[in-house]
Please model this.
Amino acid sequence: ICLAQPICDPIIDSTCFIEHMDTICVGQSVTFMYAGNSGATTYDWQFTNGSPSTASGIGPHSVTYNTPGCHPVILILNNTIPGTVDCVDEICVMPATIATVTQFGNSLQANPSGMSYQWYSQNPTWTLLSGETNQFLNPSSTGLYSVVVTNQYGCSDTATTKFIPAGVDELEIQ
Model:
């Protein structure tokens, strides 16, 4: 949680405290809540590129963002002393990670590189492969394998592939 003190009337130091997470991933929601002490009678929110795009009251307000980038959040405090105060903050929305898996010989490679990885196998149910957190996996048997790829912001995606050991042709039973 960040307690951002955005640009406000410099006379009122604790007026513009807006509680929220600093960074989220595309498609996630964030909760905004006013945490100041303005004594305002109404609170009008504007969430640029958010859904919903507006709200009233101190909150909490859950807003979903589907567009990457940093987006302004404006809170208008009405009937405060000395009058109306506009509090300006922002939320940064990180792009989604797009995971892929490629087989090279008897190894599977997850992409993109430089991320965190967790591998799973389906034999016959999906099972976490304990300790398999590298970009490369050397499976021990034919089957379906999945990897969850997570970037530094916690945004993740999953890719799945069928692994067939090199030099072994898949037989189709008819």
